[in-house]
Design brief:
By secondary structure, chain A is mainly alpha-helical. Chain A is 74% helix and 0% strand. By secondary structure, chain B is α+β, with helices and mostly antiparallel strands. Chains A and B meet through helix 2 and helix 5 of A and helix 1, strand 6 and helix 3 of B.
């Protein structure tokens, strides 16, 4: 069943496959983000309570959603790395963690900027906000562990274990607003129910979320290619690639 | 699957499940402490009644028509309720923009005699519903007034302004 995947356990095959994806991902991410953010910030109607301030939702919700989605992806890569010991899976942890950390940071920053005018506070030790802050520390911890050992495989193993253990935080973030009394609102868009906003608001929001997905994929793709090159620098195919690039330059 | 991998998979999965169970126990034990605030019913009818002089956060809806502002200072008092009892909140300071009657708020302060909370901070809560002003007017009868329009100042300004 998984036989078609086997060639991509090798760095070279993955590198070229990702290289073919990258221009498409980058172009479509730019296009979709431009449409989504332009639509949300300029054309979507204001909110009846929050006026124009609510428009930060078009950045806040996609970055928060993707920060959790990216973590789940990283945890799956960690599982593959631990059980099947595939090196590309190990490297993708290093590719994903910084992107996820930045997404988490953006969600915390936009949340604070939104909370000040609406709730009246930048920060509160609310269950949702605290668990999201823990997510940021998990990302940073995974990154630190990955680079903490002179033997790269030991570092990858340690980082994988932390990434997997940290996955228990994801449902806590998601359900925090339902399990406890919190300042943060409940989910506006859920998988099973109709969104608690009209289509002229949720369509641009969905476009923004899709744009953030493409952008995240593009960043991870590029970072994974760099990591593959860095790890396989001594391999003949990388040497050939470098020689080829030099010949082209001349 | 190779037995070696099967063993590793079982180990990894049991690690995750174990941490998950441990986390569940921790959160269940802490459940009341993770709440950001108590509702008035939790506060007055719950298992652990707070003492007078205790610092706490109370959260609920501002009762319609209960907001009284001092004409000369920033002092304001209002009632907060959820489903049953009400708690009176005294506050001196600037309220968040979203503060209004019928709105959810969270007040942090010290409990005083007679279910009164002297608040040092009042935060506004909002729900997950978003809609354009025209729709809100049609559905909820809420008239949105642009603060920059002249209409916004036709009503006499309330105390504190």
């Amino acid at each position: 069943m998984w036989r078609w995947l086997h060639p991509y356990a090798k760095g070279e095959a993955s590198y070229h496959l990702l290289g073919r994806w990258l221009p498409w991902l980058t172009a479509s991410a730019l296009l979709v983000l431009l449409i989504g953010i332009g639509w949300g910030l300029v054309f979507a109607p204001p909110d009846y309570q929050q006026g124009d301030s609510y428009r930060i939702i078009f950045i806040h919700v996609p970055s928060a959603m993707l920060s959790m989605g990216t973590y789940t992806g990283m945890a799956i890569a960690a599982l593959v790395a631990l059980v099947w010991q595939i090196r590309t899976a190990e490297w993708s942890i290093a590719a994903i963690a910084p992107v996820g950390a930045v997404l988490t940071f953006i969600s915390l920053l936009t949340g604070a900027a939104w909370g000040k005018p609406m709730w009246g506070t930048w920060w509160e030790w609310d269950a949702r906000m605290t668990s999201q802050l823990i997510l940021l520390f998990l990302y940073l911890g995974v990154l630190a562990l990955y680079h903490a050992f002179s033997d790269n495989r030991t570092g990858a193993k340690a980082a994988s274990i932390l990434a997997l253990v940290g996955v228990v935080n994801i449902p806590i973030i998601h359900f925090s607003v339902y399990w406890w009394n919190s300042l943060h609102q409940g989910a506006t868009i859920t998988k099973f129910a109709k969104p608690s906003m009209p289509p002229e608001m949720y369509i641009p929001l969905f476009v923004c979320i899709f744009g953030f997905m493409l952008m995240t994929a593009a960043f991870i793709t590029q970072r994974l290619r760099h990591e593959i090159l860095r790890q396989e620098l001594h391999r003949p195919w990388v040497q050939q690639l470098l020689v080829g690039a030099k010949v082209k330059e001349q | 699957m190779i037995p070696r991998r099967k063993k590793r998979l079982a180990m990894v999965l049991s690690l995750v499940v174990g941490v998950g169970i441990a986390m569940t126990f921790i959160l269940l034990a802490l459940s009341k402490n993770v709440d950001l605030f108590y509702t008035p019913s939790q506060m007055l009818e719950g298992e652990h009644k707070p003492q007078v002089g205790q610092r706490l956060r109370v959260g609920g809806m501002v009762v319609e028509g209960s907001v009284k502002r001092d004409a000369n200072t920033l002092e304001v008092e209002f009632l907060v309720t959820d489903t049953g009892p009400t708690v009176k909140v005294l506050y001196q300071g600037i309220l968040p923009d979203l503060f209004r009657e019928g709105q959810g708020i969270v007040a942090q302060g010290v409990l005083q005699e007679g279910n009164v909370v002297k608040a040092t901070e009042v935060l506004a809560k909002h729900d997950e519903e978003y809609m354009p002003p025209e729709l809100a007017e049609a559905m909820k009868g809420i008239k949105h007034v642009n603060p920059n329009s002249n209409e916004a100042y036709t009503k006499p300004p309330s105390g504190g302004n």
